[in-house]
C-alpha cells in the first residue's frame, strides 16, 4: 500500500503539471475546472487474518473468490491435543468442585473447619480458571469470518503447519467501496468532507459518483500532498477493489 501511495503521488505530479504562470499573476488554491487526480479503489472492510496458534491446518472451507457470511467457519486446525487438554481441565474442575461441596457439607456437620472449606474453594476456582484458559486456547483452532465478503487470497493449504502470527487468508467486502487519493495541499482552502466528485474507470468506461468522506489531518512534508478518501456511491458488484481510476473534481463557484 505504501508503494502504491508513492505511485499515486508521482501520478498526481504529472497530472497537475501546468505551464508556469506569468510573473505577477495571483496564485489560486482552487483547481481548474474538472481537475483529474489518480485514485485507488479499495474496500471499506478488508483484512488479513493470521494464525493465533502454531499448528497444522486440518481443513479449509473456502477458495479464492468464494463468498461467505459473517461468522462463517473459514479455516480449521487439527486440535486433538488442545481438545484433550480441555477435557482434562474439565475433569479437574469437576473434581475440585465436588471436593469443595464435600467440605461444605462436612463443615455443616462440624467435621471440617473453615480453613478446609476455603482451601477447597480456592482449588475449585483455580481449576475453573484453567478450564477457561483451555477453552480460549481451543477457540484459536477455528478461524471465522469477521464480516461478510469474499476471499481475496489464500496464503496457506490444508495439512500445512503454520506458526503463530502467520498470515492465513485475505478477506474483502466489496459491498462498500472507497477511493484513496493524494491532492495538493493548497486544496485545504476549499476541499471539505462531503465535497462531490466522480470516479472514472478507463478500462470499463464507467463513471461513479462519490463524496469526500475523510481528510488527513497532516500534509506530507516532502510531496506537499494531502491524503483524502471518498465514499463511492452504488459501486458494489460492478467495481472491484484494487482498480485504479481517475477522480474528477469540479472547481468551486467563483466569488463575484
Note the main attributes of this structure.
single chain; 256 residues; alpha+beta; Elongation Factor Tu (Ef-tu), domain 3; OB fold (Dihydrolipoamide Acetyltransferase, E2P); six-stranded antiparallel beta barrel; four-stranded antiparallel sheet
Assigned CATH architecture of the largest domain: Beta Barrel
Number of domains: 3
- Kindly estimate the percentage of residues that lie in beta strands according to DSSP: 25-35%
Rounded Rg: 29 Å
Q: What sort of overall outline do the alpha carbons produce when their principal axes are compared?
A: elongated
CATH class label of the largest domain: Mainly Beta
Please report the total strand number as a whole number: 12
* The CATH superfamily title of the largest domain: Efflux pump adaptor protein, beta barrel domain
Average residue-wise pLDDT: 87
Can you give the helix content as a percent range? 25-40%
Going by helix content, strand content and strand pairing, the class is alpha+beta
Structure description:
- Strands 1-8-11-10-9-12 form a 6-stranded antiparallel β-barrel. A 4-stranded antiparallel sheet has the order 5-4-2-7, with no helix packed on it.
- It starts with a helix and ends in a 7-residue tail after the last strand.
- It is α+β, with helices and mostly antiparallel strands and 256 residues long.
- The model is unreliable at 14-28 (pLDDT under 50).
- A hairpin with a 6-residue loop joins strand 9 and strand 10.
- It has 3 domains: 33-45 and 173-249, Elongation Factor Tu (Ef-tu), domain 3; 49-77 and 141-170, OB fold (Dihydrolipoamide Acetyltransferase, E2P); 80-139, Helix Hairpins (Orthogonal Bundle).
- It has helices at 2-15, 80-108, 114-139; strands at residues 35-50, 55-60, 67-68, 73-77, 142-144, 149-154, 161-162, 167-184, 196-200, 207-215, 225-232, 244-249.
Amino acid at each position: 500500500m505504501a508503494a502504491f501511495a508513492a505511485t499515486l503521488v508521482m501520478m498526481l505530479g504529472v497530472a497537475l503539471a501546468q505551464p508556469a504562470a506569468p510573473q505577477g499573476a495571483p496564485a489560486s488554491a482552487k483547481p481548474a475546472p474538472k481537475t483529474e487526480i489518480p485514485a485507488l479503489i479499495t474496500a471499506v472492510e478488508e483484512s488479513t487474518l493470521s494464525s493465533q496458534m502454531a499448528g497444522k491446518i486440518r481443513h479449509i472451507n473456502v477458495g479464492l473468490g468464494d463468498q461467505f457470511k459473517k461468522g462463517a467457519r473459514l479455516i480449521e486446525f487439527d486440535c486433538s491435543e488442545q481438545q484433550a487438554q480441555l477435557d482434562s481441565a474439565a475433569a479437574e474442575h469437576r473434581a475440585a468442585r465436588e471436593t469443595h461441596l464435600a467440605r461444605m457439607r462436612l463443615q455443616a456437620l462440624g467435621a471440617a473447619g473453615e480453613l478446609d472449606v476455603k482451601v477447597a474453594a480456592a482449588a475449585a476456582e483455580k481449576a475453573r480458571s484453567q478450564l477457561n484458559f483451555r477453552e480460549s486456547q481451543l477457540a484459536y483452532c477455528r478461524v471465522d469470518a469477521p464480516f461478510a465478503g469474499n476471499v481475496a487470497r489464500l496464503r496457506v493449504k490444508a495439512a500445512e503447519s503454520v506458526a503463530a502470527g502467520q498470515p492465513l487468508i485475505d478477506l474483502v467486502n466489496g459491498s462498500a467501496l472507497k477511493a484513496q487519493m493524494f491532492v495538493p495541499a493548497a486544496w485545504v482552502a476549499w476541499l471539505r468532507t462531503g465535497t462531490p466528485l466522480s470516479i472514472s474507470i478507463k478500462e470499463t468506461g464507467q463513471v461513479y459518483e462519490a463524496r469526500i468522506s475523510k481528510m488527513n489531518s497532516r500534509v506530507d512534508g516532502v510531496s506537499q500532498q494531502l491524503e483524502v478518501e471518498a465514499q463511492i456511491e452504488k459501486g458494489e458488484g460492478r467495481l472491484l477493489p484494487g482498480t485504479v481510476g481517475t477522480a474528477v473534481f469540479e472547481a468551486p463557484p467563483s466569488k463575484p
